[in-house]
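Human:
If only I could read backbone structure tokens as easily as an amino acid sequence. I am handing you a single protein, as its sequence and its fold in token form. I hope you can help me see how the letters and the tokens relate. Thank you; the sequence and its tokens follow:
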Amino acid sequence: MRTPKQLTPLSAIASGLAAGLVGTVCMDTVRFLRQRRSGGERNPLRWEFAPVRTWKQAPDPGQVGKRLIEGFTQRELPDAAAWPVSTFMHWSYGAVYGALYGVVAGSVRKPPPSGVYGVPFGAVVCISGYITLPIAGLYEPIWKYDRKTLADDLVPHLVYGAATGTVFWILAKAGTVCVRTHPNG
């Protein structure tokens, strides 16, 4: 039985989705600032939504999306789909991982303050890519990467996790994202 302060399962998922989107913004901010320091694009929106003209240019989330859609439809996607699919998949990953965080963190009686689980969660999200993407042929096995490359990938994911955990905690505490499944619930 839920206590009055516990989230409903749907509210935990909705709060996690919202938190995951904020976490994605934070992760992308770290990446944007990093590339800007090295002389890259100065406009964050142009950087975030840079056109992807061909599937060869598509980042890993886009490649996964392409494989899923083509596998399901049994039709080859044109290069014109590379940008929208890549963008959709990137933001979907952030939101869906956030929803998973919401399910786990929302299952405890009282979510820990400031999303204590967020940072380790971000590490798990990062590591999961090094497990699944080599199987898909999109990454090398983790041991083939040097420490700097792994650290450069880990840091934005830790920021994602910290932000997702913190926003989830704020939403859970404030009850801002409410999804009721029962009039008394």
